[in-house]
Amino acid sequence: MIRLLLRLALILVAVPLVLSVLYTVVNPVSTLMIGRWLSGERVERVWTPLSRMSPALVRAVIASEDASFCHHPGVDLEEMRQAIEKADEIEEVRGASTISMQVTKNLFLWPGRDLIRKAIEIPLALWLDLVLSKQRMIEIYLNIAEWGPDGEFGVEAGARRAFGIPAAQVSASQAALLAVMLPNPIRRDAGRPTAGLQRLAARLRERVPKEGPELVSCLSLGK
């Protein structure tokens, strides 16, 4: 029984490590997408290469979700330390989840903020950031993130749902609206933004230029 449990544990550890390498060339799906498929719910996702996305959209998402994306190894330890210091409980930690950690969660783990998931997520995020280039990491993130209440995943589905245009044609103002949807794509709608969502998007639009070229210095983006 002990040997069986050890083998099972090794398999559980090995699967994400092997898949991470595979995802350098294979376009993945998220656990949430798989869950919707298994339950018969709608899933819309059209894989879109980074080169066919609006650079304004890529910049807006990185500025909104993880402004240090190009400069940390998958986990931003300083941001995490500050977030923990400000929180009363570990479940209340906000703002410390990098794009690499979100990709790790979406590909391999379950939703929630429990300590067990975080303990698994952090080393996996470091491994994923080591295996994948930053270019590939953000491409995967932008293609598996949930962008709507009815099974819309990825920027292409998100842009078409909100504005009726492909991701390549998204303007800076539209990009900001899509970016601030990400924390809650079920309740936030870039196509029909509330006054509160418009304020968030306006603040993000002001902040993106201030981040400077370092924001996307690890990527090859057009203008």
Structure report:
- By secondary structure, the chain is mostly helical.
- It is built from 10 helices and no strands.
- α5 packs across α7 and α9 (172-181) crosses α10 (195-211).
- The model is unreliable at 89-95 (pLDDT under 50).
Quick take:
This protein is mostly helical and 223 residues long. 56% of the residues lie in helices and 0% in strands.
Could you outline the blueprint of secondary structure elements for this entry?
Blueprint: H1 2-22, H2 31-38, H3 55-65, H4 77-86, H5 99-108, H6 115-131, H7 134-144, H8 154-163, H9 172-181, H10 195-211
Q: Could you name the key traits of this structure?
A:
single chain, 10 helices, globular, 223 residues, 0% strand, 56% helix, mainly alpha
- Estimate the strand proportion: under 5%
Number of DSSP strand runs: 0
Q: What is the 3D shape?
A: globular
Spans of at least 5 consecutive residues whose pLDDT stays below 50 are 89-95
- Count every helix, treating DSSP H or I runs of 4 or more residues as helices: 10
In round numbers, the mean pLDDT is 88
Characterize the main sheet: none
Distance between the termini: 59 Å
List the secondary-structure elements in sequence, H or E: HHHHHHHHHH
The radius of gyration computed from the alpha-carbon positions, rounded to a whole number of angstroms, is 18 Å
Helix and strand content put the structural class at: mainly alpha
Helix content: 55-70%
